[in-house]
Structures are given as structure tokens and as C-alpha cells.
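Supplementary notes (optional reading)

For those who missed the lab, this is the record we used. Protein: Uroporphyrinogen-III synthase. Length: 229 residues.
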Amino acid sequence: MLTVLTTSPERALAKDLAALAPCHLAAAPLTRQYGLDYALPTERPDWVFVTSARTVEFLGEGGRSFVANSGARIASVGPATTRALNHAGIEIDLEPAGHSAAGLVAAMMLLHQSGKIAWLPGSAQAHPTLATGLTNLGLRVLPCPIYDTVPVETLPPIYEHADLVALTSASAARALAQLAPAPLPPAITIGNPSRKIALDLGINVLGTAANPSAEGLALCLEETLKRFP
């Protein structure tokens, strides 16, 4: 039976993926996150954009309270982030059909929000797609790094037996290339940013989720295993 590893620490994701295909699937994170000191915006934002459940976690109690009581409209990148926000008592106003930064920009294009203030708490390594897209739409963007990501110190031993790796972020792709000996195991990726990084690092990418979500990754895994050598 094939061994498939997901770089997400979410064991629920590994369980859901394993239910779709006859393989041994385990969560084997290659990165860890740590919180950064950050300041809340001094101006009341009109919009708060949240692009991951991890952002909700690293906002901390004070940050989550600020978001909930700011009067701003809340945009969530996708279902997992929305669930995390709802669990924190925060209702959302926008979740795009395309669960990605580009999807958020496309949705905002229809709302004509030029001149509005947008607060973007998130990763210090966030791809500029969202900030650049909103700026191009005329919003005043306030990026705010609240956490950062670094590789784990050593490669988890289970990677010695990996037949396929499900890369759930660009930082995980970088960590795999940094930590794993050649030849690197083939991979599938959760989206195009992680696909591009993986290919640039010499990782053989066998598939990319059409929708950058757990559901999209699951479908990608199912299709990839059908044609796995």
C-alpha cells in the first residue's frame, strides 16, 4: 500500500484524504509557526481579510476581540477559515466561490470598494496577491504580519517511506527541498503558488488541486493515485 504524507498538522485532513483512496496516509508537518508581536490598526478598517484558520489562532484573544467589535466587514478565504472565525464568535460578510487570494480580489472587484481601508493580518511570508490586488482596486491596504513559519529542525523519519507528499503550502515545499535527501518524493500541491515553488525547487509535481481547499486537495489525491506508477 502506498504511503502518502500531508504536510499539514491537521490530522483531520489526513483522515479525510485517507477515506478517498486505498493508501496509508499520515500527517507529517515540515514547518512550525510562531507568533509575532503586532499592533492593531490605529484607524478603524472597513474590511478585515482573513486568509487562514491559523491567522485566527495567532490573532490572540485581543486581536479576535478587535475584529469582532471593529464594525468592519469580514472577508474569509474559504470554509476552514470561516469555521475558525465562527468558532471565535466572528460572523463573515464575504467568502469567495474561488477559495484563494485571487478569489477574494475577484469578489471585491464586484463590490466597488475604492478608498476603503483593508486590514490584512496574516503570515510574514504571505504571497502579495491579495495586498496587490486590493491596492489595484483602490483600497488602502494595511498588511500586518502576526506569525511566521520556519522549517522543523529535522526531517520526520516517516518521510523515508513516502511514496507521495501532499504539499499544503509553499513553505512546506521549501522545507521538503531543504530537509529531504535526493531524490525528493513526488508531490501534489494544494494550489498554484505551492506548485510553482515546488517545481522551481525540482520537486516532481503530479497534480494540483483545482480548488485550494481540503476538498480540492482530496479530489486531486484521488485522481493522482488512479494513475500513480
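If you only remember one thing from this example: The beta strands are 2-6, 23-27, 31-35, 47-50, 73-76, 117-123, 140-151, 164-167, 187-189, 205-208.
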